[in-house]
Design brief:
With 291 residues, the chain is mainly alpha-helical. 85% of the residues lie in helices and 0% in strands. Helix 3 crosses helix 4, helix 4 runs antiparallel to helix 12 and helix 6 runs antiparallel to helix 9. The longest helix is centred in the first third of the chain and has 37 residues. The chain is globular and about 65 Å long.
Length: 291
């Protein structure tokens, strides 16, 4: 992969510590640079020189994240843990989400120079390979989300929501499952809208790569960096105003649902969530201290 998608795996891997704390996650984080390399290579079909350079860049990126960002992740987890002992509000939840997004933004900004260098060196055949891979993953997404009935999709989303909640709270009561079911029904989900945005992002990526790898005329380093940064901005903030508004509303709705679910938790469930967050915080500090 490349550009914003190069950044994606490191961001996702770093974020895993926010979601679940176990030895497997620690192992994944400690091997994040190598995992990222193989993921990127599956999309970009790197040559030997690109492989060596990317491995070095990813290792440096991970080391920076471990020392500079993981302590901030630990502090965010501490803040979340302290808030989890009492009732919360959608505004408090969204504030935590905004802090988490800012940490991912910092990672993306750090990764941009390496992503630009890789993008500028991509050959036409590699971009074609990437396009084929994107088409395949889009077809898989279409089959997963547009073929089932609306009822089946809601059931799938509910199962995912319940599974995630139970990682923190343990088994949910039926009233809490009903809360999630109602929230999912109210939020709605339009696969066609998501598919359209996915197609826009794919084409935007391919066009940006063709610009950065062009040899006639060949863009300069500053022009290439600006083009990649603009692409990443469009990836984070869709130029489609309808989709962008929808995305932001989804975040607001999710904050509301999270607050409602947390406030519905029993004393035992809330205590379990606090213990989980304390364990996550400990994991983050351990990862930050490991060199």
């Amino acid at each position: 992969m490349c550009c914003g998608r190069i950044i994606g795996l490191l961001a996702a891997t770093a974020a895993l510590v926010l979601l679940q704390a176990c030895s497997a996650v620690k192992l994944a984080y400690n091997n994040a640079s190598e995992l990222a390399y193989w993921w990127i290579d599956s999309y970009a079909d790197l040559n030997e020189q690109q492989s060596q350079q990317l491995r070095a860049e990813l290792a440096q990126l991970q080391q920076w994240h471990r020392s500079a960002e993981m302590p901030r992740v630990a502090e965010l987890l501490k803040k979340t843990r302290l808030l989890a002992s009492a009732d919360t509000s959608p505004e408090q939840v969204c504030s935590l989400v905004a802090e988490a997004r800012s940490r991912l933004d910092a990672l993306i900004a750090r990764a941009e120079p390496a992503a630009t260098a890789l993008a500028m060196g991509m050959a036409g055949a590699q971009i074609a390979h990437l396009e084929t891979k994107l088409d395949k993953t889009t077809a898989e997404w279409r089959a997963e989300w547009t073929k089932p009935s609306p009822q089946e999709i809601r059931a799938k989303r509910l199962k995912t929501a319940v599974d995630r909640a139970e990682q923190f709270y343990g088994s949910l009561e039926e009233r809490q499952v009903s809360l999630l079911r109602n929230a999912i029904a109210e939020q709605g989900f339009d696969p066609a809208r998501s598919l359209s945005e996915r197609a826009r992002r794919n084409q935007d990526l391919l066009q940006t790569l063709r610009l950065l790898s062009s040899t006639n005329p060949r863009p300069g380093a500053s022009q290439s960096a600006a083009a990649l940064h603009a692409y990443i901005e469009r990836l984070s903030h869709s130029p489609n105003p309808v989709y962008h508004a929808h995305f932001e509303q989804v975040i607001q709705d999710s904050c509301k649902t999270t607050a409602l679910l947390h406030n519905s938790a029993t004393a035992e469930q809330r205590a379990r969530a606090v213990r989980k967050l304390a364990a996550y915080e400990s994991d983050a500090r351990t990862l930050a201290a490991t060199r």
